[in-house]
């Protein structure tokens, strides 16, 4: 790679810098950079200057960088962890209730995020509508899969769902209700229709009463309609009536409505007539109110409310398909959201997940939804061809995406923990690539690795930090990192550094460290030697010569001193030998002499030795001192004690 | 706990600090500052802790913390302390120490003064030799900082250059610093040593060194008893809380096995020092209570608690001796409570003032508890 002529302007993030020209793509965990994009961009700058080059950091997962979405990730992480830890022993109803609660928690988090975004960025922002669609889908999945509502309550839940999510009409409703005489408002009947279509009977009746009081001529019609609406049988949540009872009652009521319509009771008021037709479940009448319903699933639920209130979950698919066809009427083709909802109505869970994965730009939604469904034991272990199941695959993808974020990587760790098959491997690979900018961050990463017994990663991180410290001349830090990793080799390296410094400068640097090594001294032989050697110096300084002498001898005979240091040790023995008082005993002196001989004999290159005057002088002096000491000590030891 | 308000703030919090109250103030603290870390764009933020206007039925304060102002900060916020009512000193991972001023009339923050390259590794002039500044402590107008480069700096708030610098004060990283007396400071480092430095003396050696016996476990935080200046508490990398009496011996008086991971902060309660608070990487925040009337309270009624540890302390005969130092295995017990019921990620920082506690976590949330001793 040739060097650029001028300094290339670098766009550097997280230290991923590149140099030179050409176009490489160093992929981070989620970067997935396309070389195509890079060449395209460079060409587009039109600089023309051949020596300018840039590095673009390509981010695949743009969503995770949006500030408000971070709350979503964090809060859902908390819910996810709670779900994983929740008790599996609860069976039956209580477990189901627990899972429904978890689902509601997820939804409330989505809603909270939506509101924050709405406030911060405005309703037109794309993310708000995406979040709203996500909540819609999740809510439906909760009704159909998690709660698995049965015929009866199913309809009530679907009604709630529609009321919550079809809010295009809300402003119109508010406008009419807050006006002085609602019945005179031009949109009055629209609002009544809305209430009827959504099954909000009480509110519809309330508005109609206003109309009736304003228009006494239609009092008769009003009373009948009001009566019909009041008597309409609806499924109840409790066990107060069985399905057959409901069906019977409903049949009666339906016939009554039919009679009134055929008698022409409402003939004079077309609005009321159309309401009656709606009550009878007349599809054409309902379809006329398309703009008020705005979506085909609203149409579906209205249809079900007024023609098949006891619909069973498995029958939904037929009604759904026909509703969509009737509503769209061949004018427009279904959008992705419609397809997803259709798949849900058909109870094709895998299809739902697949469609969502394709449409959404981020794995958050599918990962959490699949995990929840898996906890409901609804997904068969439908093994994908590379061995893990769908839940694990999605969680791995999501967590990998988190790891490409400079800050959210910590959440990803917990997700990997709960992927039994490949989670650990993924985590090992990802955690090594987290940039360690400060010691505190390195400590956190280390703690994560230690808790999961990832010894290799611990060693490699400690080595990186220790090398950094060593390069910055922070020997104490380097030592503390090698102690944490129990890395004897590195400790030896550090001790060698200290000893080298000592040989060069003649004194120890960082005495506070060496003096206070404590049990960590035992980590490596070299370190022990260093500690003991320093102790020797201290003993000498305190004039405890006998102990110092003993220590010195131990250092040499126990072979923990490196060979290169023996000369220095022997030289250190010189002043002890030269003392007025005899310190070394005969035995010790013999030992010393032996060491000296070992040292000089072991050197094959006598030439070098002889050329170096200092060395020869030293050896000669040592020999002389040893001999003198020996002489004195023999005499001393031979003398009878006490005289 | 109902009286804890939480807020997710989309940034990992590394430090939280209450703004100090003026001397004669009667009301509880209501403004705190937070610093973030590990972001491309770190921020110092000032918050108001809940809406004081909405007093609930029992006079409790509801409402979650809301942001007053914030400002961009270069590098991770490693440590932070209020210099006075308006100024806050912040230590950065780039080695810079900055004083920010909070303008209360228009609720903005501005950088008042900056000491760039307060901490550096090899050479002050090379562009990328910055070393993280890990601890800062102030005693208006003096500011002391320590860093990963083993350097101790003494600044004065109004002076451009450092008043004094002790280079290579330590061969390992200095993790935290606190004032022992007005002229003496305490530092802890990553080889498990607690050192006292006398700033009046010109020599660059500590006046005393204390260390743990056994493994040289790095110490991360230190705090001094507010009234009895010889009692010092430190927290270590293995989650151990050590209490030292610096008048005697070089070893700690008691070692309390606390957390399962690094202890990031330890604080004595400033006005009620029988209470100690610690927070840790394992996600828990513990309240240590040695007040003598603990034996009156049946322990199983204590909310959110883990097991109460029966550590013996006697205070009966020696009322002046603090409960923290006693070695007599007789009377009262110390009550330890975990204040976080569902722990997930690390609690990086806590601060306590009056009846209020604020803490921040790696789960990007801040929590305020304004009824600590209810």
UniProtKB/TrEMBL annotation, chain A:
Keywords attached to this entry: Membrane, mRNA transport, Nuclear pore complex, Nucleus, Protein transport, Translocation, Transport
Chloroplast in keyword set: no
Family per record: Belongs to the nucleoporin Nup85 family.
Stated name of the protein: Nuclear pore complex protein Nup85
Assembly information from the UniProt record: Component of the nuclear pore complex (NPC).
Keyword Transmembrane among UniProt keywords: no
GO process terms (BP): mRNA export from nucleus; positive regulation of DNA-templated transcription; protein import into nucleus
InterPro entries found in the cross-reference section: Nucleoporin_Nup85
A Gene Ontology cellular-component term: nuclear pore outer ring
Role, per record: Functions as a component of the nuclear pore complex (NPC).
Annotated GO MF terms: structural constituent of nuclear pore
Superkingdom of the source species: Eukaryota
Subcellular location: Nucleus, Nuclear pore complex
Pfam families: Nucleopor_Nup85
UniProtKB/TrEMBL annotation, chain B:
Keyword field contains Nucleus: yes
Compartments in which it is found: Nucleus
Sorted UniProt keywords: Nucleus, Repeat, WD repeat
GO cellular component entries: nuclear pore outer ring
WD repeat ranges, renumbered to this chain: 212-254, 256-298
InterPro entries, A to Z: WD40/YVTN_repeat-like_dom_sf, WD40_repeat_CS, WD40_repeat_dom_sf, WD40_rpt
Chief location bin: nucleus
TM segment ranges: none
tRNA-binding in keyword set: no
Pfam families from the UniProt entry: WD40 (PF00400)
Protein name: Nucleoporin 43
């Amino acid at each position: 790679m040739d060097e650029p002529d001028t300094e290339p302007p670098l766009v550097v993030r997280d230290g991923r810098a590149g140099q030179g020209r050409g176009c490489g793509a160093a992929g981070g965990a989620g970067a997935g950079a396309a070389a195509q994009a890079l060449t395209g961009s460079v060409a587009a700058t039109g600089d023309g200057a051949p020596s300018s080059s840039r590095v673009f950091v390509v981010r695949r997962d743009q969503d995770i960088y949006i500030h408000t979405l971070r709350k979503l990730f964090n809060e859902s992480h908390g819910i996810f962890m709670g779900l994983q830890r929740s008790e599996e022993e609860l069976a039956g109803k209580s477990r189901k209730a627990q899972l429904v609660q978890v689902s509601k928690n997820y939804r409330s988090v989505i809603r909270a995020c939506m509101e924050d975004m709405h406030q911060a960025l405005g309703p037109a922002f794309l993310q708000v509508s995406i979040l709203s669609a996500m909540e819609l889908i999740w809510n439906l999945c909760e009704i159909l899969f998690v709660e698995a509502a049965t015929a009866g309550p199913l309809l009530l839940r679907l009604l709630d769902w529609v009321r919550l999510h079809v809010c295009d009409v809300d402003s119109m409703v508010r406008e009419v209700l807050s006006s002085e005489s609602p019945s005179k408002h031009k949109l009055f009947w629209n609002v009544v229709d809305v209430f009827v279509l959504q099954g909000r009977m009480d509110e519809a009746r309330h508005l109609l009463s206003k109309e009736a009081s304003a228009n006494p001529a239609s009092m008769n019609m009003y009373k009948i309609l009001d009566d019909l609406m009041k008597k309409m049988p609806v499924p109840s949540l409790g066990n107060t009536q069985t399905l057959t009872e409901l069906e019977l009652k409903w049949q009666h009521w339906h016939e009554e409505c039919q009679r009134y319509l055929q008698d022409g009771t409402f003939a004079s008021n077309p609005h009321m007539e159309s309401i009656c037709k709606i009550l009878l479940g007349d599809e054409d009448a309902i379809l006329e109110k398309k703009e008020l319903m705005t979506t085909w699933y609203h149409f579906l639920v209205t249809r079900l409310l007024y023609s098949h209130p006891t619909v069973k979950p498995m029958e939904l698919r037929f009604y759904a398909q026909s509703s969509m066809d009737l509503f769209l009427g061949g004018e427009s083709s279904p959008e992705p959201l419609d397809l997803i909802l259709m798949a849900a109505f058909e109870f094709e869970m895998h299809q739902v997940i697949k469609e969502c994965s394709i449409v959404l730009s981020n794995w958050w939604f599918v990962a959490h939804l699949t995990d929840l469904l898996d906890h409901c034991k609804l997904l068969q272990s439908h093994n994908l061809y590379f061995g893990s199941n769908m839940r694990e695959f999605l969680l791995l993808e999501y967590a990998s995406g988190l790891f490409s974020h400079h800050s959210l990587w910590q959440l990803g760790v917990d997700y990997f923990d709960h992927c039994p098959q490949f989670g650990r491997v993924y985590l090992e690979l990802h955690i090594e690539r987290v940039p360690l900018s400060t010691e505190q961050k390195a400590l956190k990463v280390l703690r994560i690795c230690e808790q999961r017994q990832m010894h290799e990663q611990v060693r490699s991180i400690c080595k990186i930090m220790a090398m950094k410290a060593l390069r910055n001349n922070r020997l104490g830090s380097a030592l503390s990192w090698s102690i944490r990793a129990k890395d004897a080799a590195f400790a030896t390296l550090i001790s060698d550094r200290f000893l080298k410094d000592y040989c060069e400068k003649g004194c120890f640097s960082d005495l506070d460290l060496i003096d206070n090594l404590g049990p960590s001294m035992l980590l490596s032989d070299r370190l022990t030697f260093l500690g003991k050697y320093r102790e020797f110096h201290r003993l000498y300084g305190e004039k405890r010569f006998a102990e110092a002498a003993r220590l010195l001898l131990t250092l040499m005979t126990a072979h923990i001193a490196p060979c290169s240091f023996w000369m220095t040790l022997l030289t250190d023995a010189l002043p002890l030998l030269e003392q007025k008082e005899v310190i070394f005993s005969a035995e010790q002196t013999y030992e010393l002499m032996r060491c000296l001989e070992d040292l000089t004999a072991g050197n094959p290159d006598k030439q070098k030795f002889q050329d170096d005057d200092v060395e020869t002088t030293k050896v000669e002096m040592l020999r002389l001192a040893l001999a003198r000491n020996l002489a004195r000590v023999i005499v001393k030891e031979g003398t009878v004690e006490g005289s | 706990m109902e009286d804890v308000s939480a807020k997710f703030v989309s940034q990992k919090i590394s430090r939280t600090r209450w703004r100090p109250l003026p001397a004669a103030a009667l009301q509880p603290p209501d403004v705190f500052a937070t610093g973030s870390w590990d972001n491309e764009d770190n921020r110092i933020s000032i918050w108001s802790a809940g809406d004081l206007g909405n007093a609930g039925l029992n006079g409790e304060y509801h409402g979650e913390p809301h942001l007053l102002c914030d400002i961009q900060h270069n590098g991770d916020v490693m440590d932070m302390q209020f210099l006075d009512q308006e100024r806050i000193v912040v230590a950065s991972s780039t080695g810079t120490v900055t004083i920010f001023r909070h303008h209360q009339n228009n609720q903005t923050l501005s950088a008042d003064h900056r000491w760039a390259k307060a901490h550096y590794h090899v050479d002050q002039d090379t562009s990328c030799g910055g070393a993280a500044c890990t601890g800062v402590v102030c005693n208006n107008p003096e500011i002391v900082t320590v860093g990963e480069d083993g350097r101790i700096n003494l600044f004065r708030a109004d002076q451009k250059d450092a008043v004094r610098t002790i280079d290579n004060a330590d061969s390992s990283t200095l993790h935290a610093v606190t004032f022992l007396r007005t002229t003496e400071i305490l530092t802890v480092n990553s080889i498990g040593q607690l050192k006292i430095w006398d700033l009046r003396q010109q020599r660059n050696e500590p006046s005393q060194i204390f260390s743990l016996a056994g493994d040289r476990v790095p110490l991360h935080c230190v705090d001094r008893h507010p009234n009895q200046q010889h009692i010092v508490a430190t927290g270590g990398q293995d989650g151990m809380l050590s209490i030292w009496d610096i008048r005697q011996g070089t070893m700690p008086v008691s070692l309390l096995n606390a957390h399962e991971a690094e202890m990031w902060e330890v604080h004595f309660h400033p006005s009620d020092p029988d209470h100690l608070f610690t927070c840790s990487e394992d996600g828990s925040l513990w309240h240590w209570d040695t007040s003598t009337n603990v034996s009156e309270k049946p322990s199983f009624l204590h909310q959110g608690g883990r097991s109460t540890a029966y550590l013996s302390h006697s205070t009966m005969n020696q009322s002046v001796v603090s409960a923290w130092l006693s070695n007599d295995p007789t009377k009262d017990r110390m009550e330890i409570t975990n204040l976080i019921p569902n722990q997930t990620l690390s609690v990086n920082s806590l601060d306590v003032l009056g009846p209020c506690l604020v803490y921040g976590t790696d789960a990007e949330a801040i929590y305020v508890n304004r009824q600590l001793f209810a």
